[in-house]
Amino acid sequence: MFNHFVDDTSLRELHKHGGTYTWTNNQETPIMAIIDRVFILVDWEEHFPLVTAHSLTRVGSDHNPLLAETESGVSIRSSIFRFENAWLNQEGFGEWVLRKWAQRQKSYVLDH
Known about the structure:
Layout: H1 2-8, E1 11-13, E2 16-17, E3 23-24, E4 32-33, E5 39-41, H2 42-47, E6 52-55, E7 66-69, H3 93-100
């Protein structure tokens, strides 16, 4: 019935950043589950295209609070660095790297 309701009303679940689970039974051997979710109307998302959902730290409850933000106040960045080849075409990029990167004392880059 729930899935039919979500489908009939054109709701969309927001991907949640943060903790994996939203509920625990707070026992010595805990049961953890995702029972709290953030749903939005597709039409509503057109007005707030940067909407995000975050799982916050649980304090004094068995549920993690969820926060939906309609603006990108804090950007969530990946911890993975990816070099963009297009940077090599930017005028002055090579000189900028040389100024920012300390001189190497060792010839093998992994030793630096």
